[in-house]
Amino acid sequence: MKEAQLHRLLEDLVKQPKESEWVEFKYNFHSHEEIGRLLSALSNGACIHNQEYGYLVFGVEDQTHQIVGTTFKAKSAQIGKEELEHWLAQRLNPRIDFEIYEFEYETKGISMFIIPATHNQPVEFQHQAYIRVGSISRKLNEFPEKARKIWKRGPSLAFEKRKALPDVSADKVVSLLDTQSYFELLRIPYPSSRDGVIEKFISEEFIVPSKKGYSITHLGAILFAKNLNDFSTLYRKAVRVIIYDGKNKLHTTREEIRENGYAVGFIGLINWINSQLPTNEVIGQALRKEVRMYPEIAIRELVANALIHQDFEEKGFPIIEIYSDRIEISNSGLPLITPERFIDEYQSRNEKLADLLRRLGICEEKGSGIDKVIASTEVFQLPAPDFLILQRHTKAILYAYKQLKNMDKKDKVRATYQHCCLKYITNEKMTNQSLRQRFGIENRNAAVASRIIRDALETGMIKDDDPHTNSRKYAKYIPFWA
After folding, report:
1. Cβ pair 289, 334 in contact under 8 A
2. E strands within 67-123?
3. In angstroms, what is the C-alpha Rg of the chain?
């Protein structure tokens, strides 16, 4: 958020008739624990009162609302060697994505916390939830009726429809959003007037009319921002690409932050990632050519999935990490379906975002992305991609080429299961022969494929298509869920 915006916000807040369950003024710092309790209380209070955010402002006298300034610098404050912001975030559950700003207002220092309203779950600080009652922070469990309101209340608006920047002029809309890219991606003519651009962006819900002009929505900003830093709620969602020297994080050789909107920057992002990937030299028909180690369609689909399926309510950002032996593509939040069903099921928490990215040609149709990832890795004879569900984020991993003899049992079983799924959704059945082709096993070594199939059967990931047949030679296999 820019300083002029912060000044306007501060002026609006001090006009409040009194402090409330979602606004708190402080003259100066008292304790770190008090701030933690207030973050919990203000987030919970904002939820109850249908506010998008709560506010904790240092440098304002709480009785008169006079702006007096403060010596407390919240953004740079530390506890021991730990930053206050990190210390607070670690002790809040769920980890709301609050922001801290330090700025001057008429030469007076101000520290401001902007705290998103919680949804469906009270925010706790050190395992205790709080609420504001008058000017006092109280334990939420003393007010069960208020707690019930939080548990029952989901977000008042979907993330995509919320305001990223309110009350701007039409000129400002065009200066902040790359309107040209929208029309180019859809391959339709650019309107002859600015009013035509504004009308189209309203119809797509990229902007909505407001009392003072237009408000840019999260959907419009996350897709078409020229610079996500212009939007205080979204700058942390910029895509990061980190390249490491080796198989671990010890040595970073390059880091890139893509600060434009996802639709605006997607093609450039994919091209840049591919330019950083190692290549293999292939000799054929007396010609040498360089071939990327990973299929571009797999990179494209996995990056698109990370953008589409991230949980915008969680802290974190899409990140692509490139190692010497793998690529890891991560997004914040947990998936709505299990990884074992990624290939045949589809469900997104950001349906409007997903629909726009499909229409703009960024990603494939519903449910047809992961099967392309798996099919292309099979063509490249790569180990099967892996999908990991971690504490607060989801990670997809593409592995560099590895000979079958160097794969462990888990690698082989995962590849077998994915191959079986791929066959099933194309109305075919996995066989010993098809698995040999998948792994590049010679026909005379059919027993190797048989052992891998047996291991996969024992894990329960695949099953016999006809459990009553006694013939192993002509046996066919289907996924466990079929």
Report:
1. no
2. 78-79, 82-83, 92-93, 99-105, 108-116
3. 27
On average, the pLDDT of the chain sits at: 89
pLDDT of residue 335: 86
Please tell me the pTM assigned to this model. Answer: 0.73
SS3 call for 462: strand
Give the closest residue to 312 by CA, choosing from 261, 257, 237, 258.
237
Q: What pLDDT, on a 0 to 100 scale, did the predictor assign at position 331? A: 94
Which CATH number, 1.10.3470, 3.30.300, 2.60.120, 3.30.950, labels domain 3-154? Answer: 3.30.950
Band (pLDDT 50/70/90 cuts) for residue 133 is: confident
Of the candidates 250, 299, 249, which has an alpha carbon nearest to the alpha carbon of residue 272?
299
Q: In b/e form, how buried is each residue of 337-354, taking b as 16+ CB within 10 angstroms? A: eeebebbbebebbbebbb
Residues 36-89: pLDDT tens digits?
999 999 999 999 888 888 999 999 998 899 999 999 999 989 998 899 999 999
Say yes or no to pLDDT of 156 above 80.
Answer: no
CA angle 367, 272, 252 (to 5 degrees): 105
> Can you tell me the distance from the alpha carbon of 27 to that of 279, in angstroms, rounded to the nearest whole number?
59
Could you tell me the two tokens for 268?
């450039």
Residue 142 burial (C-beta neighbours within 10 Å; 0-12, 13-18, 19+)? exposed
Answer whether 333's CB lies under 8 Å from 311's CB. Answer: yes
**Three-class SS state of 336:** coil
The residue ranges of every structural domain in the chain are 3-154, 160-236, 238-399, 405-479
Fold category of 405-479 in CATH: Arc Repressor Mutant, subunit A (1.10.10)
pLDDT in tens, 398-419: 999 999 999 999 999 999 999 9
Contact 188, 242 (CB under 8 A): no
DSSP class per residue in 142-206: G-HHHHHHHHH---SS-GGGSEEEEEE-HHHHHHHB-HHHHHHHHT-PPPSSHHHHHHHHHHTTS
Q: Does the pLDDT of residue 283 top 50, yes or no? A: no
Look at residue 438 and give its three-state secondary structure: helix
Residue ranges of the alpha helices (H) in 280-393?
Answer: 296-309, 351-359, 370-379
Residue 155 is predicted with a pLDDT of: 57
Token code pair at residue 292? 């990327």
